[in-house]
Design brief:
The complex is a heterodimer of chains A (159) and B (280). Chain A has 159 residues and is of the alpha+beta class. Chain A has helices spanning 26-33, 89-97, 106-119, 125-131, 143-158, and strands at 6-10, 13-17, 52-55, 58-61, 74-76. Chain A has two domains: 3-80, Beta-grasp domain (Ubiquitin-like (UB roll), Roll); 89-158, [2Fe-2S]-binding domain (DNA polymerase, domain 1), CATH 1.10.150. In chain B, a hairpin with a 6-residue loop joins strand 13 (201-207) and strand 14. The chains are: A alpha+beta (159), B alpha+beta (280). Residues 41-44, 46-51, 61, 63 of chain A line the site of one FE2/S2 (inorganic) cluster.
Chain lengths: 159, 280
């Protein structure tokens, strides 16, 4: 069964999604149809968090969102977090802390960390660990990712 | 008619379901989309429930907590919810990850009817009542009437789960589960223990160790008699015996997550600890 064409609002702009298979996930639509490959596809079962996006401001796995049912929501992907071409403070802190190795987990973590720090400006370590427990990284061992979170929190409170 | 509908009222949702047997309800999508992505489910038409106001959130109605089928796990982290339903709040906190808890719902957990559904042992221990509706009317079921086997329920295609009613806590409650890591883990075994200081009863529900939800009734009866209800204390050996009786009620299997022997052992240990934590 296919869908009729529908409209999704992503990063503040309306996108027309042409008719397609009804079961298509938001992750597939973002990556394959809307040219937004920031959200990564690793597991397609909600386990890795590399596809994390915000749907109406709620941190969600794009692979678990039925795209055609997301009409009328505001979707934010990693591409929409900062001003065009500029790094967000979380992205800059990842570079400064050396929190990127292969980089595959990075976009999902960036979205999750923005979401966390918007709710809690200076989270304790345990809060950070719980908040990021849905984002797997196979390279870094997480130490530098946690350092990057602390770095952003410190920089935001200093400015 | 569009192939994906997003109604805003329950009446509308039920009318759409009654008119179309091929319409599949979709809540948070955390079970539904995993099946779709793996090719195990081929939806024809989809009824997205996220905008149905009546299914959202929870409210207190006197001594009863009424939880909408569309209530997400993250909403159960509310301190007021945790005071009224401590074991359910604990279970909700252990489910998946923030991304899963942000969208996953109690109605989805019930309808999926997985033996590992973490809300099920709590709802069993509490004697929860599940309200189910269609255009024909509503009916109310116990969790073990709704769920009859592994991923099997008595729901008709035109029915929706609308709410779950549980008594507001009248004593200590504990939920425990065990798996291979702290976060993002499906239970290898789980247990809920609920003490009612007014009725002098103990509820004990088991998770991941039976095909359909059960209560460990021998353990419940034993503990209810062994506890001194005025002091919430019990004699030596009570919690150990409670653990043994709870483990006896388990009928676990070997699978990719664990073994039957380990699961039964884990139930015994967790039941003992859960009751210890409930007693003073
Ligand atoms: C990464 C990951 C980790 C998870 N971890 C856990 C865990 O730790 N513990 C646990 O118990 N579960 C876990 N789950 C499973 C899942 O999150 C839960 O079962 C969740 O409660 C499903 O709810 P949902 O709203 O996402 O349902 P959906 O996926 O939207 O729907 C599930 C099923 O229920 C039906 N349905 C939904 N709402 C209704 C309704 N109101 N009336 C009738 N039918 C309805 C749908 O048609 C579908 O068949 C996990 C899932 C993932 C992907
Ligand atoms: S691809 Fe969505 S969580 Fe892994
Ligand atoms: S940097 Fe490689 S998975 Fe995280």
């Amino acid at each position: 069964m296919s869908t009729q064409s529908y409209r999704l609002r992503v990063n503040g702009a309306d996108h027309e999604v042409a008719e397609g298979w009804i079961g298509e996930s938001l992750l597939d639509v973002l990556r394959d149809r809307l040219g937004l490959p920031g959200a990564k596809n690793a597991c397609e079962e909600g386990e890795c968090g590399s596809c994390s996006v915000l749907v109406d401001g709620v941190l969600s796995c794009a692979c678990l969102v039925l795209a055609a049912a997301a009409i009328g929501t505001e979707i934010t992907t990693v591409e929409g977090l900062g001003a065009e071409g500029a790094l967000t403070d979380v992205q800059q802190a990842f570079i400064d802390a050396g929190a990127v190795q292969c980089g595959f987990c990075t976009p999902g973590l960036i979205v999750a960390i923005h979401d966390l720090l918007d709710q809690d400006a200076s989270p304790e370590r345990l809060v950070v660990e719980e908040a990021l427990s849905g984002n797997l990284c196979r390279c870094t061992g997480y130490g530098r990712i946690l350092e990057a979170v602390d770095l952003v929190a410190a920089r935001r409170s200093a400015s | 008619m569009s192939n994906v509908v997003v109604p805003t009222t329950l009446d509308e949702a039920l009318a759409l379901l009654a008119a179309d047997p091929q319409l599949s309800p979709l809540a948070g999508g955390t079970d539904f989309m995993v099946e779709v992505n793996h090719g195990a489910r081929r939806p024809v038409r989809v009824l997205a429930l996220r905008a149905v106001a009546e299914l959202r959130g929870w409210r207190r109605d006197g001594d009863v907590l009424v939880i909408g089928a569309g209530c997400t796990y993250v909403s159960m982290a509310d301190p007021a919810f945790a005071v009224a339903a401590p074991a359910l709040a604990q279970a909700a906190r252990t489910i998946g990850s923030p991304q899963i808890r942000n969208v996953g719902t109690i109605g989805g957990n019930l309808a999926t009817a997985s033996p590992a559904g973490d809300t099920l042992p709590v709802l069993m221990a509490l004697g929860a009542r599940v309200e189910v509706a269609s255009t024909e009317g509503t009916r109310t079921l116990a969790v073990d009437e709704l769920i009859t086997g592994v991923k099997r329920t008595v729901l008709h295609p035109a029915e929706l789960i609308t709410s779950v009613r549980i008594p507001v806590a009248r004593g200590p409650q504990e939920f425990c589960k065990i798996g291979t890591r702290n976060a993002m883990v499906i239970s290898a075994a789980g247990i809920a223990v609920v003490l009612d200081r007014e009725a002098h009863t103990v509820g004990c529900g088991l998770g991941s160790v039976t095909a359909a939800p059960v209560r460990a009734t021998d353990a419940e009866t034993f503990a209810a008699e062994a506890i001194d209800w005025s002091t919430l204390r019990a004699g030596a050996g009570t919690t150990e015996r409670f653990g043994t009786l709870a483990a006896d009620a388990a009928t676990p299997i070997d699978d990719h997550r664990s073994t039957a022997a380990y699961r039964r052992h884990a139930i015994g240990v967790m039941a003992r600890r859960a009751l210890e934590r409930c007693l003073s």
